[in-house]
Amino acid sequence: MSKLIEKLVLRFRKDEDGIALTEYLILLGLLASAVIAAVLLFGDELGANWETWANWMRDETDLHAPAVTGSGG
């Protein structure tokens, strides 16, 4: 019985087919966790900055837009 277990353990140690997939899944999980953490930590601040930038852009384009005159055709 112990020989059978030894064979199974040795075969399991040599079998590396799923190792690359497992490593990629672990990396994907870590990356997804980092993105979620960043959004939770900085989401409100980034949203406020984005809104400030959008308002500035809107105000700048309203102030410097050329006046449209003429009959148009």
Automatic annotation (TrEMBL):
Keywords from the named record: Membrane, Transmembrane, Transmembrane helix
Membrane spanning residue stretches: 21-43
Transmembrane helix is among the record's keywords: yes
Name the UniProt record assigns to this protein: Flp family type IVb pilin
